[in-house]
Amino acid sequence: MANESNLKPIKNSKIARELQEKSVEKRKQNDKERKLLKDLLIERTKSKDLEEMIDNVIKRAKNTDKGFEVYRDTIGEKPKEKVEADVGITSIRVDIDE
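Below the sequence we write its predicted structure tokens.
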């Protein structure tokens, strides 16, 4: 696990650029694999299986908090997680000399 005591700064910008390019390529590959898996799951799920899965989700939503969260998130009602900051300014004085 990385922490500040074992991180080594990369002093060569060429090496840093190569590492960044490898990271981008790996991320693209992972995204393609996830999309392929999603497409295969959707394609292979039959309507009968899908109905059974939906019934199970509804049953779990009635009985458990986690089931309810899955149900809520699936129908698109997940609450937005946001941080609000109240920064008040009591007065602003602007002097403009022409």
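The longest helix spans residues 13-44.
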